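Hey, I'm writing a tutorial for new members on how sequence and structure tokens pair up, and I'd like a real worked example in the thread rather than a made-up one. If someone can provide the structure for the chain below, I'll link this post from the tutorial.
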Amino acid sequence: MAITRWEPFQDIDLWEPFSWQPMREIERMQQRMNRIFDRLMPTVDREVFGLGFVPSVEMEETDQAVILKLEIPGMEAKDLHVEVSEDSVSIRGDRKSEARIEEKGMLRSEFHYGMFERVIPLPVHIQNDKVTAEYKHGILRLTLPKAEEAKKKIVKVKLD
């Protein structure tokens, strides 16, 4: 087998912005970028297909528990579905869109609506039957007590 030199940028054409056809070069670059983004996020009619939003997460580990916070504004606790196994947490919900009245002149909305599901792997095993939850001001806070074998035990070693 022959050894060949790897040239990762060999398929990229030299871009000459001041050539006699600069607009054509810019259009080609834009088309290539659009293809890259289309591969990463499949779209239907320029809307993201199948994704509502993905809640942001903060995770903190103490000696006794893992504290998990999810940012889920604009929902009620009854609309959230939380399942906890000993090594992961799954949160699902559906943020309903508000009825829009066109005569009020809505020009732009950046709010995300729709179904979401987030599965978060945990760094240690937990006691899933002792999890407590609180939902206040759009933040879901889960306190996940560690399983006994996951707690950091300090053992004094006797020296002879």
